[in-house]
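User: My instructor asked us to take a sequence, write out its structure as tokens, and then describe one feature of it. I'm not sure where to start. Here is the sequence I was given:
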Amino acid sequence: MAARFGPSGVIDVAKFRYYRLGRPIGVSDVFLSYSRRDSGFVSRLAAALSERGKEVWVDVEGVRDAEVFPEALRGAIESSDAFAFVISPDAVKSAFCVEEIEHAARLNKRIIPLALRLVPDEEIPEEVRFRNWIPAGEDSDFAATVERLLKALDTDLEWEREHSRVTVRALEWDRSRRDRSFLLRGADLRSAEAWLAAGAGKDPGPTALETEYVVAGRRAAALRQRGLLVASLVVAAVSVGLLIFALISRGEAVSQALTSDAERVGAQGVNEKNVDLAMLYAVAGVKLQNRLQTRSDLLTVLQNNPDAIRLLRPSQNEITSLAVNGGGQLLATGDSGGIVRFEDMSHWTASGRPLALKGSIPQEAMMFSPDGRTLAVLSETGSPEGPNQAGRTNLYSIDVATRRVRLLGSWGGVFSSVPYPGASLAYDRSGRHLALSISTNSANGSVAADTLTLIDPSTGRTIWQRQYPLLAGGLQLEARLVFAPNGTLVTSAQQGDTLIWNPRTGRVERRFPIGGQPAINAAGDRLALAINSPSLATATSRIALLDLRTGHYRFLPAGLPNAWLRGFAFTPDGESIVSATTHGQVDVWDVASGTILATIPPPGGDRASEVLAPSGRTVLVGSEAGTVVAYDLSGSRRLGRAFQWGPPAQSCAAAPCIAINRQSNLMATDQGDGSVALIALPNLRLAATLPARNGPFAPAIAFFPDGRTLLTGGSTGQLTLWDTRSHTVLRTIKIDAPVYWGAVSPGGRLLAVQTQTSTSPSAQVQVRPVTGGRPLWTHPLQDGTGGLYFSPDGREVAALGCCTSLSTVASWNARTGRELFSRRLANHATAIAFSPDSRLLAVGTEDGHVLFWDARGGVEAAPALRVSTGNVAQIAFSPDGSTMAAASHDGSTTLWDLRSGTQIGGSFPERPNVITSPVFAPNGKLVIDYLADAAEWPMDVASWERFACQVAGRNLTQAEWRDVLPNRSYMQVCPANG
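Assistant: Let's start with the prediction itself. The structure tokens for your sequence are:
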């Protein structure tokens, strides 16, 4: 667990005396506890508080020599209104720390930690572990620290002072064996009763002893009154009242403690680097208390790991090598302890028993035979010495069905330590040949020699062996191997060449003057090379594409700073390359454009291994922590299910560009050539493409209430009504200018369009009957075209004009055209949307705010929200109106709770240089459009919980539970099967 600030700061009495600033021993404002190492800071703090009129307890003079230290300390704590700890590692080691904290906690004192120096979580006493800290370290402003402490001390000051007075009196009564002469009377008693009543909702509130003390005082007073019956009734009433207060106080304290635990464990999930623990902590927060903050934490964890679909923990050692059989059903993992395990990928369960090999398994050291019946594994023995280790490289063959292990060969040498393996292996397509490269290093870690061997894997017989050619200069690294589909062997080395070998003769047939980590496409005509920098200290990497027919190569424009590439493979279609850095970051590269399409962050640790499943749909990343995370590249198995209907270049020109019908079963989006794609939402597949009928730019798109009629419009100044089932044109309507926005009234009887000619600085808003004929009304709109919507109740039409030097938001009566309001803004409005109840019009601005206006009057109806750092591109309300999605030019897509005005989760997955288009479907799901692809996210917390549990694949262990929730009974937060 990462270190964090925690409570401590007590006085080592073997080395200190006490002094008291201000008045003699009595009730003081604050008791300061600290270690000797921090005395300079504490003296400065005490002086600052004293100058502000506070009575402060600190060390040196307050305790007389003849007094017993613990008793004097307890008295000082009891007589102080607040208890402040100066946090440092030295302070928590003091034996008096526990005694002081426990005593202050028993007295329900206000405990205020001052975070001076870091303390590990596990060293923090439970009584104050989760309280809010006031920063006081070197990076903090001392004056600000003093002000925050003063503010904390002055909060409920009168109640705390009465608390200290009652505490001292109650303790005197209890220590005198509850002598009645110590009880409160008269005004003192009435004041204490009022204080007790006021403390019912406070945390911490009165202690049980203090409650008993006040009740005893009232009982004694009642007995002194004439009329025992009346006195008894009074006592009963007061006792019942105090009991009620106590019960209320306890109930509120229990509720507050539950809230604190739930929000704390949820926040722990957000900060946790291990994917499974992050998921489980976040689910635990929701299970403890399903509230906005815990739901937000759970969504944040899922947004941070949008591609993860499963995590396995096969080992306690580093996962160094991974392999998947040709059918994609079986995963083999190898670790630094030499253990090979198999996992059934259809159920994500262990398959058979682990197998122990001699030595450790280096990276990229396992491969299934093409028929999947055999697994070839390399292991290395010896003790690392600097960058090298001397020992033997062993080649094993494992029969997958029987798990029988055979040693095929063993070679001695000096090779590089993990994670930079000195050996590589590859099967040919027939499975009859296994190529093996083993390098020998010099003392400085460079490759001194490299041996290439072709082996018969059925017997271990060497077919031929060659010394691998090394370039002069000593910079060339170990050779890496792949077989081409035609059976030729391709080898390549960083800072070396790429060689084509004849597998029959063992001779080099071609040489290309470029080298790196190789991957070959399915056609066998193109080789991708991961080119790493010579030194890991200045790590960079880029990808070259080598045409094996012509020898020509080119570099992809994108590159990776601060990383080396190791895992590397083409997807089966050859259109993408999936790479992994030595740290485990996975990138998906588009071969045609050379850009990085997607990035999956590393699962944690300094080293990682990676393998792409043969289907190209799943990439698996092993980590130092012994975990393997499966990431979905296809998108269909994620929580936010991804789907694509065309190439990125065919995407719409401007957001928003999607519409969803009321049945939530069909989505329509305009495309770069003016055509319209229809996507079936139940299976997230392209259903049809409507041809371009409105010009190459056709951004106006809207569904009719019947769910099957679609309105489109574009640059030709024409509207087209389509039947989405038959894909036929129902009607065309001629408009006198290019159409930028179109809308259909909720009743389906009116059409609204926003148009603008190339010569006009203003736009036109027009409403007309669906059946045809003349427009009902037309109005000019200053500042251009920016948006057009009917209100959900159909009464108003609102439009945005954007953007000249100003922008305009205007609203009209939908049927008559009477203007309801028109407002011009210097701070440009960039998006508008109606709330589902038609009462609010949300207005996004260029500085990242969303304004909320009365939809009929155009006046402010609710406080604005700051949702981004850039122009707000699109706003969408959930069907129930409780949440809002906002997309921005800064690339973010965020979700907001409108009741509290707070963000839910983080940003949904972003794409470089892409402005998203979020739309809520009527079924409540959020669809986020990127280019010619989108993601559909469920918005119910039950779906979030189920998916998080699926990814984790397990429950929190009891030890993991105790680490974060030591005072709560263990419970399983996920179903037993994960």
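For the description part of your assignment, you could build on this observation: The two ends are 24 Å apart (CA to CA). Try explaining in your own words what that tells you about the chain.
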